[in-house]
Amino acid sequence: MEDLLEQLLHGLTLGSMYAMVATGLALMFGVVRLINFAHGEFFMLGAYAFWFSFKELHLPYAVAGVAAAAAMTVFGVVYQRTVIRAILDRTWHVQLIATLATSIVMTNLAMIVFGTQAKEVPTTLSSTVITVGGLRTTWQRLLVVAGALVVFGALHWFVTRTKLGKAMRAMSQNREACAVVGVDVQKVALVTFAVSAALAGIAAALVTPLFNIFPDMGALLALKAFAAVIVGGFGYVNGAIAASFLIGIAESLAGGYVSYAYKDAFAFLFMIAVLLWRPQGLFGRRIGI
Amino acid sequence: MALLEIRALTKRFLGVTAVDAVSLAIERGELVSLIGPNGSGKTTLFNCITGYLPSDAGTIAFRGADVTGAPPHRMSRLGIGRTFQLVSVFPRLTVLENLLVFLQQHQEESFFGRLVRSPRLRRLETAAVERARSLLALVGLGEREGMPAGNLSYGQRKLLAFAAALMPDPELILLDEPAAAVNPTMINQMKDHIRMLHAQGKTILLVEHNMEVVMDISQRIVVLDHGQKIAEGTPEAIRRNPDVIEAYFGR
Amino acid sequence: MGLPWIVAAAFPGQQRYLLHILVFTGLFASLALSYDLVVGHVGSLSLAHPAFFGIGAYAAALLATEAKWPFVAGLAAAVLAAGAAALLIGVPVFRLAEHSLAIGTLGFAMVTHIVILNWVDFTRGPLCVTSIPRPSIAGLAITTLPAYYWLTLAAFAVAAVLYRALTTFRLGRAFHAVRDNEPLAQAAGINPLKYRMMAFSIGAAVAGGVGALYAHYLTVLCPEELTISLTVTLLVILFLGGVGSLRGIVIGAVLFTALPEVLRVAPTWRLVIYGSLLLAIVIRAPEGLDALFRRRAPR
What we know:
Order of helices and strands of chain B: EEEHEEHEHHHHEHEHEEHH
Number of strands of chain B: 10
Helix content of chain B: 40-55%
Structural class of chain B: alpha/beta
Shape of chain A: globular
Low-confidence stretches of chain B: none
Mean pLDDT of chain A: 86
Largest sheet of chain A: 2 strands, antiparallel
Shape of chain B: globular
Radius of gyration of chain A: 18 Å
Structural class of chain A: mainly alpha
Strand content of chain B: 15-25%
Strand order of the largest sheet of chain B: 6-7-8-3-9-10
Number of strands of chain A: 2
Distance between the termini of chain A: 38 Å
Number of helices of chain A: 12
Oligomer: heterotrimer
Strand content of chain A: under 5%
Strand order of the largest sheet of chain A: 1-2
Helix content of chain A: over 70%
Distance between the termini of chain B: 38 Å
């Protein structure tokens, strides 16, 4: 029984990570209608930024985490201003190829700069095993889940209470109307990207003490995030979050009870299964984030 | 038995009932127009009939056989041709090729025959080219047969789309706003073409906003409002129908 | 195709290296043609091609080393296996809306990679399949480099002829109709799913065949061969060579296979350059590139 619960807890951890990354993806699609194939690399760069701050600059954990998030926010802005602006009004095929190309460039540059050897960033929180209610885990895993909840809470507040956030919501529902009414569409797009990138950076800071860092870690993560976004109903953030947790738990259970080697394949199989059953995703094509 | 029989067809979108239990029967050889104010569900009904939208309730029967839910390519093969409201061509194919595409599916071919280009296939192709040329001559595009369709003007594309729909010699032709966005000369051309088709024995259903055209050529008119059929009859009867007048002007 | 002799005369002493490059170029050109069938002619942005290449390569390699099948039988099996995989994955994936096709095919490619990497008992995983025998057709052993060159040339010729047959005349018209305006193609009686599946599975089958030839050429086969880098290289060949054009793709294959080999560019830098080029061309491209992907005319 404990084993099952531990797997579930692990699934929650995975789900939190996927959810933070998937939310960024869903936001970009929902607000700006953009498919960003380089999103996995946001996470990868965030992980390296965190590693650099923590391991090389010897900053304390929290500061390194903030540094990673800040670095990614800047990166998100730069990315939007350069690549994204050029492809925003093009067909999705163009957006896909462009972001895919960017992803490959970033992955390979990371290989050149950081080398292909995996890097580890253990923290005191991740290396000490504790027992909570009879279950073995680490503080870091609990931190991931808690962090995700905090982040989602903050995001929800941002989107419902602030002017910019409300503009994001409005844009996801009706972009043309927004432009007419005077919403600064470019600014909202920029903010959306900054937020999505920051989310990836925060996720990286929370999660990398648990896993190794290597240049092509983004690809698999992105695929799972995409699966979550599709299953949740493209562009519907709550759906993506729910689907992420489902995928995290399914993967953990499958990895623990079926096959550890192929656990990564389960997200994909789950996605295909759901789509065959309900092509519009579990929550349908909701309009708006 | 009516050629096209629609019974209680319903289509809903996110809580809005776009087509509400509409029933309609079109006999062979009729020329029927479907009219109604904006948002009355005419194009939605069209798209349901031609297979582009799945309906939520009701049935569609063509030549007595149930075709509810059949995909558009099957409807085409059964003998229903259509044009689109926003004129649709294959921009990178030539004018001639645009027409040839419409016939090739209706000519029998085997898989390997396609790859190998048998003599039989060549004969079919020659026949198709002849038919295409005669249709192009009919609509006045004969001289542009080698041009990419994307280079044509809007009006020319409209004529091309019209000719293409006629290539497989469909029994029932659905025209989606044939008189929209074209100049008066073209409108008269269209009316002549439609009348000619009718005289050849084709069955025609058209959706149209241009009242002058509708009143001029229709045998029968069906009026939709808010997804429901509110009137049906000859042009004269419709002209005087209080419900119709109310729907168009009385809001 | 006396090209190699001309070039060999100009660069004496480099014959072997040259032939090696030509073999690689020939294989990649054939692969690019098979990919162009799907992307360029029927307009489906599939990211699964490396998987089909890999399935064919591994099928041939394993059948030759484990089951001791003769080359031709292994090649046939590779082609059929890849084609069958395409049919299997195509049915669910082509019913997905738009972008989901790309993600679905990408997922399939990644899962195939994962399976091949981890199923060590069967595929040897990271240990690679080694000692793949040189091909032998009807008793004629293809062990020398020039012989392999002729084999590749023959394969390329087959690929090119097939490509031409499928993209011209009525079938080509049907593919292009589905690509350029799917709703209108439906109105013309064309079943888009049928044609997309046709292009997809034939493209996959050819990719599988190329994979088999590749495996036999290198005599060693590792899972690294089937990653997304291959897709990016293919996309670069297509877009910078000329989507939908036989000649353009051959030029692209020469540019992006031969040149980097000759210049001895490291794989990582190669991909950085390819990615940047792809990005640049996709952004700057003249209307032609967008028009390629505008398959839905307004209704």
